Amino acid sequence: MKKPSVTPFLITLLLAAAVCTHGKEQVKDSNGNPVKRAAKYFIQPVKSNGGGLVPAAINVLPFCPLGITQTLLPSQPGLPVSFGYEPVIVGTDYIYTSTSINIEFRSEIWPVCNELSKLWAVDVSSSAAKEPAIIIGGESTAPNSLFKIEEATGAHTYKLTTSSGTVGTIPGAWLGAPQLIDTNDEAKTLFVKFVKVNDDATKSTTATSRVEKLGLRMFPFY
């Protein structure tokens, strides 16, 4: 018996991918290169004197789930993340604007809250504030774990949106360091750039001074 060809199936998948990304722009990193799915990037605010984004406790009790905060140290690039599609778009290795994605922290050093995923999510718990925190512990297919990257003013500058608002910041618990929230207040919008992780960035992260290392104690899991 002749086996059915997989070619028509593959063509259908590729056409579906083309339809999903038609009319949308490739997201670019800080150097103007397309952002790749599953590659590692630092998310860094563009209108700030601080560093990149890291997981951080936003409550004393319960300690978990962790929220997301910008480190106050300009020399710290943050903790790497990767982007993935949900549902998966077959046939593309790049991330496009206005398309649902997951955002996930990528780190081997993660001594707390290990029972939770590293996926970003909007806090939809019953105790969530009017402007809920962006937290870790998301589920890839859950609506509150889906984000979109949208273009903003400035070269290779973007904002993150959710189904209910835009990712912004408020002064957080750690010395007022900006804490990520879901908001409808445009004044609080967080504008970011994506910096691809490379050997130089890794070296700059590990070659921190004693003062910088002491400052990172407010992020003990970073």
Automatic annotation (TrEMBL):
<dbReference type="InterPro" id="IPR002160">
    <property type="entry name" value="Prot_inh_Kunz-lg"/>
</dbReference>
<protein>
    <recommendedName>
        <fullName>Water-soluble chlorophyll protein</fullName>
    </recommendedName>
</protein>
<feature type="signal peptide">
    <location>
        <begin position="1"/>
        <end position="23"/>
    </location>
</feature>
<keyword id="KW-0732">Signal</keyword>
<dbReference type="Pfam" id="PF00197">
    <property type="entry name" value="Kunitz_legume"/>
</dbReference>
<dbReference type="InterPro" id="IPR011065">
    <property type="entry name" value="Kunitz_inhibitor_STI-like_sf"/>
</dbReference>
<dbReference type="GO" id="GO:0004866">
    <property type="term" value="F:endopeptidase inhibitor activity"/>
</dbReference>
